[in-house]
Design goal:
Layout: E1 2-7, H1 13-20, E2 25-31, H2 42-49, H3 54-66, H4 73-81, E3 89-90, E4 107-110, H5 133-144, E5 148-154, H6 164-174, E6 178-182, E7 193-195, E8 203-204, E9 206-214, H7 251-259, E10 264-266, E11 271-272, E12 284-290, H8 291-294, H9 298-303, E13 307-309, E14 312-318, H10 321-326, H11 340-348, H12 353-365
Parallel strand pairs: 1-2, 1-4, 2-3, 4-5, 8-11, 10-12
Antiparallel strand pairs: 5-9, 6-9, 7-9, 12-14, 13-14
């Protein structure tokens, strides 16, 4: 059984990937603060908890977040869908002691918010990332020593701070006693980006992926990044035939999304990379339905504006949260128990499941997990 751990866990894209692939796994720990902030800084909290036991520290941090009065909706979605002990779900990566799980993890997955680093000269290594959440990610890898880690991040990290951020990240990874794999193109030029549309999902979503394999782990061959596959599906393949009237746009919305192509697109076969809040600020992809399809549906006709788009008469609606999840590779048995606005955000912040599946297949082929 594969022992899994995740940081910035979100709604569990890697868990979905393993489930679809019928790979038995056990969650050792997960961590996500649900996009909440604490009133105290890390240094102040460290002073308070330094003499506490492991259990007391976690209880203190959990209570600090409870006192914010904001529910961790990410944790709510995660706990509803995956089997994990509550004591192994952490609210804040900064106070997670990876030593507790040392050499107990086969795969660690996560990304971190993109932040500038204080780079001292050209060294740009582990110490230069202090005070950032990437430092915490690297620290956990160093403490836990998983057999394999997968790091994911936004494309903008490559050019962030004129490339200094990416250079520092690479140098930091090199210090972790891992064989680091970063994709290169056919000409040997570094190109660490994988696009969801190259792995079976009709979404132009480009993300950085780095794979690290512990140098102490036994392998039978080198890891290689998965080959692209021809895209066979369209956005329309993921849509429901009948959708609640609340998702249809009125006149203002209809006119906005049909006259602002740089901000919204309608009826495309491949969706753009969806922003976390894309469905409630007129920013993202929308679906056009011809009038004949809905002409007998009184609820939709009462809510929706009937207009002309591409010389066709019809209505326009949002993509529903369930459809967004499908377009991220999630199965329909994923339980939704939060409002639409937050579900859109959680979906938009996730990793595309199909890309992770492609990476997992290649990791398996190295033989690093053969003893499981």
């Amino acid at each position: 059984m594969l022992k899994l751990a995740t940081l910035f866990s979100g709604i569990g894209a890697i868990e979905q990937a393993l489930k679809i692939m019928n790979i038995d796994y056990e969650i050792k720990f997960a961590c996500d603060n649900g996009e909440r902030e604490l009133p105290l800084n890390k240094e102040e909290i460290d002073q308070i908890i330094k003499k506490m036991s492991e259990v007391q520290r976690k209880e203190y941090i959990d209570n600090l977040y409870k006192k914010t009065g904001k529910e961790n909706l990410m944790q709510k979605s995660y706990m509803l869908n995956y089997n994990i002990n509550e004591e192994d779900f952490y609210q804040d990566v900064r106070f997670l002691n990876g030593e507790k799980y040392k050499e107990q993890v086969d795969l660690l997955v996560g990304g971190s918010p993109c932040q500038s680093f204080s780079v001292n000269g050209k060294r740009g290594g582990f110490e230069d990332t202090r005070g950032t959440l990437f430092y915490e990610y690297a620290r956990i890898v160093k403490e836990v020593q998983p057999k394999v880690f997968i790091f994911e991040n936004v494309k903008g990290m490559l050019t962030h701070d004129n490339g200094a951020t990416w250079d520092t990240i690479k140098n930091t990874f090199e210090q972790l006693e891992y064989q680091i794999y970063i994709k290169h193109d056919k000409n040997g030029k570094e190109n660490p980006i994988l696009n969801a549309m190259d792995y079976g999902i009709p979404q132009n979503r480009q993300r950085i992926f780095v794979v690290g394999i512990n140098k102490k782990a036994k392998t039978k061959k080198e890891f290689k990044f998965p080959e692209k596959i021809k895209l066979k599906n369209k956005v329309s393949d993921y849509l429901d035939k009948n959708v609640d009237a609340k998702y249809y746009l009125g006149q203002k919305g209809f006119e906005f999304v049909t006259t602002h192509p740089s901000r919204a697109q309608v009826g495309c076969d491949v969706m753009r990379c969806q922003k976390a809040n894309q469905q409630f600020n007129w920013n993202g992809d929308f679906i056009f339905e011809e009038f004949d399809k809905i002409k007998t549906n009184e609820k939709i006709l009462k809510k929706a504006y009937v207009g002309i788009w591409n010389n066709k008469k019809g209505v326009i609606r949002k993509i529903t949260p369930r459809e967004c999840l499908r377009l991220m590779g999630f199965m329909d048995d994923f339980i939704i128990d939060i409002n639409d606005q937050n579900m859109y955000r959680q979906s938009g912040n996730s990793i595309v499941v199909n890309v992770l599946m492609a990476l997992i297949n290649e990791i398996i082929s190295t033989g690093v997990w053969e003893e499981l």
